[in-house]
Amino acid sequence: MLVHDGHASSRRFFTSANAASYDRVAKYATFGQDLKWKRHIMEALGNHNPVLELACGTGVLSSMLALSGRSVVGLDFTFEYLRESMRRLGIPLAQGTAEILPYRDGCFGAIVSSYLAKYVEIDRLAEECWRVLRPGGAVVFHDFAYPSSPSMRHLWAAYFSILRLCGTFIPAWRIVFQELDRVIKESRWESQLQTLLLKKGFRAVSCKYYSLGTSAIVSAQKP
Ligand SMILES: C[S@@+](CC[C@H](N)C(=O)[O-])C[C@H]1O[C@@H](n2cnc3c(N)ncnc32)[C@H](O)[C@@H]1O
Questions:
Q1: Ligand 1 atom with minimal separation from the 60 CA
Q2: Do 39 and 59 form a contact (C-beta atoms < 8 A)?
Q3: Is residue 178 part of a domain?
Q4: Is 114 a pocket residue for ligand 1 (Cβ < 6 Å)?
Q5: C-alpha of residue 169 to centroid of ligand 1, in Å
Q6: 136 alpha carbon – ligand 1 mean position (Å)
Q7: Containing domain of residue 139, as a range?
Q8: Total structural domains in the chain?
């Protein structure tokens, strides 16, 4: 198993203690933006099929994709989160890491993920996506971003101070609420991923920001 800073954070953040409450926390802690961002992922995805969701977690996005009539396969490395997905969905699921995909070359029409990019070894991720995607296939990656405007950065910091305070009353989420801002601030996933995708040969590489720059979607196509 690979181990680096992103993996270490992710392993401490997502555990049996918070798998069952994840969906509610994602909804309320983002003021409902989580679902909006996932709808933007679906729009960016177009009609590509079948779809691999990396870091599918409890299956929020996978279930939206399945409901839209797509064939979906999910992968995540946290067993307790996959178990929540299993309860909700009848799709093929695998426990594994996004940097070493247990799939043959060229078998997916699209690869999507939400909240993975800041935890992953991004160069390996780009390599593996290229390998398992069909020609003409699409990748769509979504994650939090650190806003660029100074006034928004003040608001962002205030939001995380409140979240940290909430964490003192919710032990299952304390570490996440205390450390998520640092992980987001230290990550340069949007720029790194765009550079890597272009280098690998992807076309139509684009990055769109949402919710005042606090979230981003990077998408691209394999020629
Ligand atoms: C914040 S949750 C997001 C779950 C889901 N994508 C969603 O949007 O609701 C992050 C998930 O990423 C998974 N994860 C983090 N790094 C991973 C990696 N390298 N490979 C596979 N899964 C990973 C964690 O296990 C966790 O389930």
A1: 9
A2: no
A3: no
A4: yes
A5: 24
A6: 26
A7: 5-146+186-221
A8: 1
Residue 67 within a domain: yes
Is the predicted pLDDT of residue 25 greater than 90, yes or no? yes
Q: In what order do the strands lie in the sheet containing 215-221? A: 93-95, 72-76, 51-54, 108-114, 133-144, 215-221, 203-210
User: Is 87 part of a structural domain of the chain?
Assistant: yes
The CATH number linked to 72 is 3.40.50.150
Let me know if residue 175 belongs to a domain: no
Question: How far away, in angstroms, is 115 Cα from ligand 1 center?
Answer: 6
Q: Is 93 in the pocket of ligand 1 (CB under 6 A)?
A: no
Percent of the chain with pLDDT over 70: 99
List pLDDT tens digits, range 186-222.
999 999 999 999 999 999 999 999 999 999 999 999 9
Interval between CA 56 and ligand 1 midpoint (Å): 6
Tell me which residue of 163, 117, 145, 171 sits closest to 6, measured CA to CA: 117
Which residue's CA is the nearest one to ligand 1's atom 13?
55
